[in-house]
Amino acid sequence: MKITDIEFLASAFDLESCPATGLPEFAFVGRSNVGKSSLINLLTATKELAHTSSKPGKTQRMNFFRINGGWVLVDLPGYGYAKVSRQQQHEFNVQVSAYLTTRPNLKQVFSLVDSSIEPQGGDLSFMQWMQECGVPYSVVFTKTDRSSDSQVEENMEAFEAALEEWGLAPTGIFHCSAKSGKGRGPILHWIDQQLPKKKSKAKTKGKGVNLGWMKK
Question: How does pLDDT run across 45-76, given as a tens digit for each residue?
């Protein structure tokens, strides 16, 4: 997939203020400081589409971006950042939970996991909750360039083993690095495969009768 057009749609605090586009939506979420903003900027080949900061917890609303006019990328607030007040954490959880469980055009949640650290129970619990709610999700390992190759592999293997122990079955598992660009292609290709197929115009032979738009 080649991204040629990006349009900011809305920054929503609650489900009611989310834009009504009817387009397939793909959401990105994870613990604060997991590298979500860097990944989004990598996928869209931009430097500042999602705000990156040395201070976690900057994304405090659900941000919607229309991509190539055909699908929507949703940047969700991070979770697990202690310096955000408990009230804010509660509000984030309530609003994001409502979006994840009731948004009809949500096609997939990419749940980000920091590969430079050992498996975190909060990540597994969040995925367990999504699975119990019937929310489709995939795992994206981030920061695969931050530690030694052996340590990263060990952490990812441990997390995948934990997924099996918890009875979790994500749609897919991706590995990425915002620094090297690793993983951009596979994620965008997977998204592209989920989008409605383009339509083509067909005509009958001889009479040239227009049959209209037909799916491939």
Answer: 887 666 543 444 445 689 999 999 999 999 99
The answer to whether 183 and 28 are in contact (CB under 8 A) is no
Domains, in order of start, for the chain: 6-215 (3.40.50.300)
Residue 129's identity, in one-letter code, is: W
Q: Tens of pLDDT along 4-26?
A: 999 999 999 888 999 998 999 99
Whole-structure pTM value = 0.83
Considering Cα of 187, then 190, then 122, then 165, what sign does the dihedral take? negative
Strand, coil or helix: 206: coil
**Contact predicate 142/28, CB 8 Å:** no
Q: What is the average pLDDT score of the chain?
A: 82
Task: Say if residues 6 and 47 touch (Cβ distance below 8 Å).
Answer: no
**Alpha-carbon gap, residue 62 to 148, rounded angstroms:** 34
Describe the crossing of helices 121-133 and 86-102 by its angle, rounded to 10 degrees: 40
Alpha-carbon distance 50 to 151, whole Å? 28
Q: Which of 100, 98, 111, 93 is nearest to 36 (CA)?
A: 111
Cα–Cα distance between 114 and 31 in angstroms, integer? 8
pLDDT value at residue 96: 86
Cβ-count burial 171-196 (b if 16+ within 10 Å, e if not): eeebbbbbeeeebbeebbebbeeebe
